[in-house]
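During the second year of the project, the team shifted from modelling isolated chains to modelling whole assemblies. The rationale, set out in the original proposal, was that interfaces cannot be judged from single-chain predictions alone. As a representative example for this report, we include one of the complexes processed in the last quarter. Its constituent sequences, exactly as entered into the pipeline, are reproduced here:
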Amino acid sequence: MNYLTKIPRQLSLGLLFLILSMSAYGKKPVLIAEDRLSEIETIRDLALKSDLGYELLESLTTEVGARMAGSPQDPLAVKWATKKLKALGFDKVWTEPVTFPSWKRGVETASIVSPYPQPLYITALGGSVSTPSDGLIGQVVHFTDLDALKKSSIQQVRGKIVFISNRMQRFRNGRGYGPAVAARGNGAHEASAKGAIAIVLRSVGTDNHRVPHTGGMRYKEGIKRIPAAALSNPDADQLVRILARGKSLKLKLNIGAHPAGEYTSYNVIGEITGSSKPKEVVIIGGHLDSWDLGTGAVDDGAGVAIAMAAATIIKKSKIKPKRSIRVILWANEEQGLFGAKAYAKAHHQDLENHIIGAESDFGAGRIYEFSSLFKEEDKPFIEQLKRVFRPLGIKYANNEATPGPDLIPLFTSGMSVFGLAQDGWDYFDLHHTADDTCDKVEPAAMAQNVAAYTVFSLMMADYAGDLKRPTKQKTKQQKEK
Amino acid sequence: MNYLTKIPRQLSLGLLFLILSMSAYGKKPVLIAEDRLSEIETIRDLALKSDLGYELLESLTTEVGARMAGSPQDPLAVKWATKKLKALGFDKVWTEPVTFPSWKRGVETASIVSPYPQPLYITALGGSVSTPSDGLIGQVVHFTDLDALKKSSIQQVRGKIVFISNRMQRFRNGRGYGPAVAARGNGAHEASAKGAIAIVLRSVGTDNHRVPHTGGMRYKEGIKRIPAAALSNPDADQLVRILARGKSLKLKLNIGAHPAGEYTSYNVIGEITGSSKPKEVVIIGGHLDSWDLGTGAVDDGAGVAIAMAAATIIKKSKIKPKRSIRVILWANEEQGLFGAKAYAKAHHQDLENHIIGAESDFGAGRIYEFSSLFKEEDKPFIEQLKRVFRPLGIKYANNEATPGPDLIPLFTSGMSVFGLAQDGWDYFDLHHTADDTCDKVEPAAMAQNVAAYTVFSLMMADYAGDLKRPTKQKTKQQKEK
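Output from the structure prediction step:
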């Protein structure tokens, strides 16, 4: 007996439709139901009125302050985050170890020896070796950018202090960073390969304050490690003005920075368990470490606080997300994505369950657009996202989302990512400086970010499709390589 | 024979009018003639197109940089100014000695010991004594302003580090400075009188950068001298946030500042000799010294450069001012008007010939109004001044001009002064900080200032009246006392 025969015609048509719908599931996933969308919108609006994001930022930057990976504040930050996630009511809270070589800052002074003796404001780049303890003195050889250094001769550079003077340009999306930061990352080994005794470069930053910008740099195997430091923008201007007079310029540098052995910190993780697909996770987060000069408000206390607040607001609401929402507070992003790499390694057998991720690591400016990385069949979902993001002033950008820094290892392993682009107009005024403090953050902008992350988390947790990245279409990042 | 009888009637009437005019001279001085006003307007417009002011500022801040009175840069600044005034073609250039007790800055570090250990950005106040060489640690007692400290008890303060947290308010005319700066000047002896071991105060400044503001302070005879330092605004905010948690706050301070013996610097003076009243002088100028943290661009390289450029533009023009125009680049304003006092003392027998003065010591913002201190009979001259200043966007304010700091001793001795009020909206973002560098100065605004000082100098040099201050009417400053 075919049980269909016993069912009234009307009902049987309904069942037929259901079966047909289910058979189409792989290609055209069911969108989020209207009443669920309304619930998500309610939570979004609650988040927009909540101060929780700013409160968490204030707490982290006040009670821990700067928290450079491997510094005495590193374990305090881990403790703060663990305690806070538990207090906020996350379903699960745990840590995962992250081991890396640590580095310590020491004395850092610089001055013009001739022609016009005066002090300069510098800071060692992260990873720099020290000068001799009584400093070093050298003549300056000036290059307008890294390319000019690359094209120079050994005769020009040998025995001198290289100075690279190009200035980072200001854009809302921060695209001036890439071209400028190359000198920070690679200047030291390029200069050393030509016999330089040290390198000083204009801070990679858009401000005009006497607060130099630190940041990571790397040496190359087989090339002598030379001290590397950044000058504040006004100090770099000063050197350029002196050099424009055709004067021979001598500097004295004294840098006490040095490697400080292996250190183990922790990724701190909190999860809101999904109601129907608990093993599948949507990842949000920011990195818990900062540089040591400021208190790490925009880099990346904001990201940490936004993710924690968004998940908390969801947890405290009536809504139960279908997938789990995992907040990862990444360890040691600044010195080389150590937390991100450790996580990807530890979870390599579980990558299938990492559905999609977004990282907030570009300050606390308002989000103005979102980008996806959807297969063709998931594109109808974009319309629903547009609707829910629109009241936050967030428009759809494109289907070419790229990963935040800590999502790169998971992204490389195949996880999809989502972009929530923030206004970064003043981000590089503060980035990696002493000025990165919580007074620079606007609470209302934080709340808008938190609201956007509640929307992202809930929509991704509930969407029925697998959200896998398109396989054939090359992503923007792959195209650029 | 009466010679009038031989003169035709028409001519005799003319002569009669002339004699009557001359007899009225004391009360109604002849205004500046129309063709002369036109010449002055031509020079004003030339000045507005000249880069000389900015060029001088750039030269001083680049080639000398910071030039704290008594520091190794002090003689370099004197040399720079003397050489420059001669090269610019001043008729006379000379120096006059100024002796004062000097002070040296040393190490200056601070940190929170508990409850949340972290470094703070501070700078010693000018004149501060040192802590013990290994620093001092103390519990913080917090006062919202100097008055609250004054009202406190010895029990509250004894053995503690006083922290004063009120923030300077921002106004175009800088009137937030007075109420805030009292804590800087008097906080140390008020705190010490109640047994405090040190004082830290929020920087007297309107910015949000991690660049503390230094500035002069004084001790009182018979009260123990305790170390005094300013915290950057974000650091003061941090302490306030911690105190708001009801936590006991302990700081460590290490300050190496100390008195450094008597030093002799120089007022540097350049003069454009007057054509018909060479002994009578109109004074313009700024102070040559700066604090040591920045390169003294807005305080007071701008004033120095504006006065030098204005007089130079006059000297290089065809016009010959009737009175002499004297540019005084005052020594050591910052530590107590030492140059101003020495000048007034050295010239006390010649004060009659000091007709009127104006000092530029409020940055390089545009001038928006002028004020006079004229007797009733000189008030018609205000209309001529209005006309010549108007195209520069400078309006008449009132007849209650007050002296710039270095003119106070001359003013007190009876000299008249003139006010050229600058827009100081951002002046206290930079004042006495490392951020006071020449990139903050807008060349076009400098040129407007230079043009205004050419107008002031020429109009005062040519005006026939004696320009003496009103004797009966109390000045605004006297009223306030």
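The first helix of chain A runs from residue 9 to 23. Confidence is low (pLDDT under 50) at residues 1-26 of chain A.
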